[in-house]
Amino acid sequence: MAIAQRQRVPDGSGTARAMAYSLKRWEALTRYLDDGDAPIDNNWVEWRAGSD
Questions:
Q1: Apex 50 CA angle, 44 and 52, nearest 5
Q2: How far is CA 9 from the centre of its chain?
Q3: Domain named Transposase IS66 central: which ranges (predicted)?
Q4: Which of 6, 28, 35, 51 is most buried, most CB within 10 Å of its CB?
């Protein structure tokens, strides 16, 4: 579905670049779906890294 929507967006536009970025990295961006216990974000890691 996302690929079909990308084809409707003008090449070179910011939206087209954003969609291409997401589609190229789709597997990595959706990996958390394989594990129901995995958080969708990494805010806790960011918080810990900044708490030193």
A1: 115
A2: 18
A3: 4-46
A4: 6
Write the single-letter amino acid at 33: L
The DSSP secondary structure of 1-50, one letter per residue, reads -HHHHHTTSPTTSHHHHHHHHHHHTHHHHTGGGG-TTS-S--HHHHHHHH
Q: For 27-51, write each residue's pLDDT tens digit.
A: 988 888 898 888 788 888 888 887 6
> How far apart (Å, rounded) are the C-alpha atoms in residues 43 and 5?
30
Give residue for tokens 């394989």: 34
**pTM (predicted TM-score):** 0.59
- Report CA-CA distances (Å) from 40 to 6, 7, 32, 51: 24, 28, 7, 21
Contact indicator for 10, 16 with CB cutoff of 8 Å: yes
